[in-house]
Design brief:
single chain, mainly alpha, rod-shaped
Length: 324
């Protein structure tokens, strides 16, 4: 008689649900012993097979995780190198930009200094020409002044000579007239004496002749005095004319121009001071990437086996106790 799993005779429905090999074993009478030994072994084998699959899967998972960590580390290293290249390129660009700014600033300052130097040279040339022109004009003015003063002196001297000559001529003419009057007086006296007259009428006649002579001489002396006064007035007028001409010459004389001020020398254009970028140092790059912790494949498998063996043994013992 076939027995079910609870040790009681199996009914028809249970017989129909049994597998062929179970039926054979049940009918052969060895069912109880087979289940007592085979069932635990099958349970342990199935557990071992399952844990083996889990261990392989854990090993593959650990290997994939390690490969992912390796790929991430290679990526981090490449990114770190590229970041360093980027920092060096940016630093070189900033250094070049600063150098270009400094060069442009120096070029602009040199250009402004050259323009200022040209303007200064032009102003200096104009100043020197003006100074030379003024000096030449002053020298010419001095020469003209000296010539005018000399001309005034010669004109005054000539005028004085003319006046002196006129006065001399007047004196000479007066002396000649006086001599002529003396001769006339002597002639009249001689004529009168030749008549041999005497008495009161003779005295009156002498007086008349002497009075006429004195009158003529007085007129001559008065003319000489008048000529002398006119001569002195003419000399004063000549002196005044000379003084006026000298004043006119002095007024026309150019004043000493002195030294014209020199143009102000240009000041050099101040240059902008540019600070070069700070040299790159290690702290600019930061620490290099560190590879993440990898998983030991064998340890992962061992962990699966370590956690599965007790449960496998427990399932085997449970199966053995059930079919004992």
């Amino acid at each position: 008689m076939m027995m079910n799993e609870f040790g009681v005779p199996a009914n028809e429905h249970e017989m129909m649900m049994m597998k062929p090999h179970e039926k054979v074993m049940a009918e052969s009478g060895v069912e109880s012993n087979f289940l007592n030994w085979v069932a635990p072994i099958v349970s342990v084998g199935v557990g071992l097979w399952g844990k083996n699959k889990e261990a392989k899967a854990a090993g593959k998972q650990a290997q994939k995780q390690n490969e992912a960590i390796e790929r991430q580390h290679k990526y981090n290293l490449k990114a770190y190198e590229m970041k360093g290249d980027q920092l060096r390129a940016e630093h070189a660009f900033r250094v070049e930009t600063t150098a270009l700014k400094r060069q442009n600033e120096n070029n602009a300052a040199d250009y402004r200094d050259a323009i200022n130097a040209q303007n200064y040279a032009r102003q200096l040339m104009i100043r020197n020409r003006e100074q030379a022109s003024l000096d030449a004009q002053f020298e010419k003015s001095n020469k003209l002044y000296d010539m005018k003063m000399g001309y005034n002196e010669r004109s005054a001297a000539l005028a004085r000579e003319n006046e002196n000559r006129k006065l001399d001529e007047i004196h000479s003419e007066a002396a000649f007239d006086a001599q002529e009057q003396r001769l006339k007086h002597l002639q009249e006296e001689g004529k009168f004496r030749a008549l041999g007259q005497a008495g009161v009428s003779v005295g009156k006649t002498h007086q008349s002749i002497a009075a006429n002579f004195g009158s003529q001489i007085a007129m001559l002396n008065a003319g000489l005095d008048s000529a002398g006064a006119n001569h002195m007035a003419a000399l004063k007028e000549i002196q005044n004319d000379k003084f006026s001409a000298d004043l006119s010459a002095w007024a026309e004389k150019m004043a000493d121009p002195g030294e014209l001020p020199m143009p102000v020398q240009p000041i050099l254009t101040p240059r902008t001071i540019y600070q070069d970028p700070e040299p790159l140092q290690d702290f600019h790059f930061g620490p290099p990437p560190v590879k993440g912790a990898t998983v030991d494949v064998g340890a992962a498998k061992s962990a699966v086996w370590g956690s599965g063996i007790p449960s496998i043994l427990n399932s085997g013992l449970t199966a053995y106790n059930m079919f004992k």
